[in-house]
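Final report, closing paragraph on structural work. Over the funding period we assembled a curated collection of sequence-structure pairs, and we close with a single example.
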Amino acid sequence: MNTIILRTIAAALIALALSSAGVGIAAAHTALVSSDPAKDANLSTAPTAVVLTFSEDINPAFATVVVKSADGSNWVGESPQVDGPRLTAAVGPGRLATGEYTVGYRVVSTDGHPVTGSYTFTIAASPGEPPPPPASTEPTPSAAAAPSQSAPAGSDTKTTVITALVAGLALGGAIAFWQSRKHRRNGAVAESTGPLNPADPGEDPAAR
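Its predicted structure, as stored:
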């Protein structure tokens, strides 16, 4: 009787131990251990790469990393480099501008367990970085060219003045020509009619 009880207790203990071991194995699945840049980091210098370190070795064939800016652009153009549990993704081309970025990853451990996740970091303006130059108040080329656009209006005014002067001169010339003809005509009439009340050619002046 005691032997049966002891065997039952031993079996229960073994089952409990195996169950605990199973839970430990399940809990030991791959997880992200550290990252650079770190989660919620506020950086003054833009990173050139994102480095993720996991609790287990990563399968290089199933490793994906993206670094997206606020407008949705992905700044990781090449496949990440995997070295055991460490994954490195180069960022570029070009330098990251200030703003918030989201790191997204999906990896598969060597035991076939997939892991996905994401986090954000922010690039702030450096204290020594000069502020952007103010908007220029100088006229743009189009504004500088604006006076030439008003030239036709001035040209029209000048043309109108010249036309008026020509018309005035023509009218004055016509009036002067008409007056000259009138004077010549009156002179011709006066010469043809002779002086008023002329003496009779046959009359003796002495008789008057």
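The chain has a mean pLDDT of 75. Residues 155-189 form one domain. We thank the funder for supporting this effort.
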